Amino acid sequence: MKAYLLSLLLGVVVGLIYHVVGVKSPAPPTVALAGLLGMLAGEHAITFVRTLLVHVTS
């Protein structure tokens, strides 16, 4: 849980810095969130498939 809070805090800090400096985000927010969702889905998919394989082979 600590890693999630730290990640969120750093994201907010970087967003504030981008706003103050006047730099646009490298990706539109929707695209960035879709990419993060894909990364999370891929990470959890591997664990899910491993769990299924353990149940199927045993």
* CA-based gyration radius: 17 Å
Q: Output mean pLDDT.
A: 83
Structural class: mainly alpha
What is the domain total for the residues? 1
Number of strands: 0
Low-confidence regions? none
Separate helix tally? 2
Based on CA inertia axes, which overall geometry fits? elongated
How would a crystallographer describe the biggest sheet?
none
How far apart the termini lie comes to 33 Å
Strand residues, percent: under 5%
Description:
With 58 residues, the protein is mostly helical. It has one domain. Helices cover 84% and strands 0% of the residues. The chain contains 2 helices and no strands. It has helices at 2-21, 29-57. The longest helix is centred in the last third of the chain and has 29 residues, at 29-57.
